[in-house]
Design goal:
By secondary structure, the chain is mainly β. Helices cover 2% and strands 48% of the residues. The chain is globular.
Length: 320
């Protein structure tokens, strides 16, 4: 790798080794979405026994059987495709797909409704947004409670990029409201249209003697897409803002610190999953230790969105 690129981006995780696309940008590993692992899983007979295919952004391979998957040791990415085992029933949710684009592939992220009905045993409908993110998923999923606790959010990272670059296109039906469907309670209408969402956070994390994780926010980037774009928007730039941005004209309330009552989770040095307590804003010149990046077809959080939303994304890079 060119010496210039090596000095621009120092990544502390072997799964996120960058690739150079020019002297000004650095692509995230597997961020061109050309390589995928396919998981072949047969669902329980009581719900039809169908074979489902779950796709992960990782070296090309096929994994057969209902084997829990966190993420590849070579790729920093995980998708919202997930294996669930609820009340002894094996069920898959598939919301992220590879799709042909030119000579390679892109990722298509869909918002869908997943339904499981077994007379006298289980009857649930869950709204699932298509997401790709850096980190890992704790499988199998056994319930719909506290969904953020099932995600190990973020990867080690010490770079200071100025922007996130990506190609995208987006489709929505323009519904004025969204749906909330958690599985075991009645569906609710949530006012307001849906948007696709790209969120990036750089954090400086530390751990105390008891294994609790803390962080300060070093930098923030966010953009929401709500307009249909039938053609690709290439090399779209999302600026990354450093330090306390609450007085910045680009600041929006959803770009603030992660609320203590609904924290992201991470794995501590003891191998335990614990909440990450984001305690404040770091100085603008602070060096981060971790990168959080999530790209999703619906912005409202777990179980909220508009069925039929689709976001296509490709060529995720950093600009310096």
């Amino acid at each position: 790798m060119k010496k210039l690129i090596a000095t621009l981006l120092i990544l502390a995780s072997p799964g996120i080794i960058p690739t150079a696309s020019s002297q000004k940008t650095v692509g995230l590993a597997y961020g061109n979405f050309d390589r995928w692992t396919v998981r072949e899983i047969k669902e329980s007979g009581v719900i039809g026994g169908n074979v489902r295919y779950l796709y992960e952004i990782a070296p090309g391979d096929t994994i057969k059987g209902d084997i829990p998957y966190r993420r590849s040791s070579q790729s920093p990415w995980r998708t919202s495709n997930v294996l669930a085992k609820v009340s002894g029933i094996t069920k898959c949710s598939v919301t992220v797909f590879p799709e042909k684009r030119g000579n390679g592939y892109c990722a298509r992220l869909d918002t869908r409704m997943e339904t499981v009905k077994v007379l006298g045993l289980i009857n649930i409908s869950v709204l699932a947004s298509g997401s790709v993110f850096l980190g890992e998923m704790l499988e199998p999923i056994k319930d719909t409670k506290n969904p953020l606790a099932k995600l190990n959010q973020g990867v080690p990272f010490t770079g200071r990029p100025t922007a996130l670059i990506l190609d995208y296109k987006f489709h929505t039906d323009g519904s004025p409201n969204r749906i909330k469907a958690t599985g075991f309670s009645s569906q609710k209408t949530i006012p307001g249209p849906d948007f696709a969402d790209v969120t990036l956070m750089l954090q400086k994390r530390w751990e105390d003697a008891d294994g609790n994780l803390y962080a300060k926010r070093v930098a923030t980037a966010n953009e929401r897409f709500g307009r249909n774009t039938p053609d690709w928007i290439n090399n779209h730039s999302i600026p990354i803002h450093y330090g306390d941005i609450t007085s910045d004209p680009a600041y929006r309330p959803h770009m603030g610190l992660i609320p203590e009552e609904d924290p992201y989770w991470g794995r501590n040095s003891k191998g335990q999953m614990v909440p990450i307590h984001e305690t404040g804003w770091a100085s603008a010149d602070e060096q981060p230790t971790h990168l959080i990046l999530q790209i999703t077809s619906s912005y409202g959080g777990a179980y909220i969105g508009t069925v039929g939303n689709s976001l296509w994304v490709d060529n995720v890079k950093f600009q310096y």
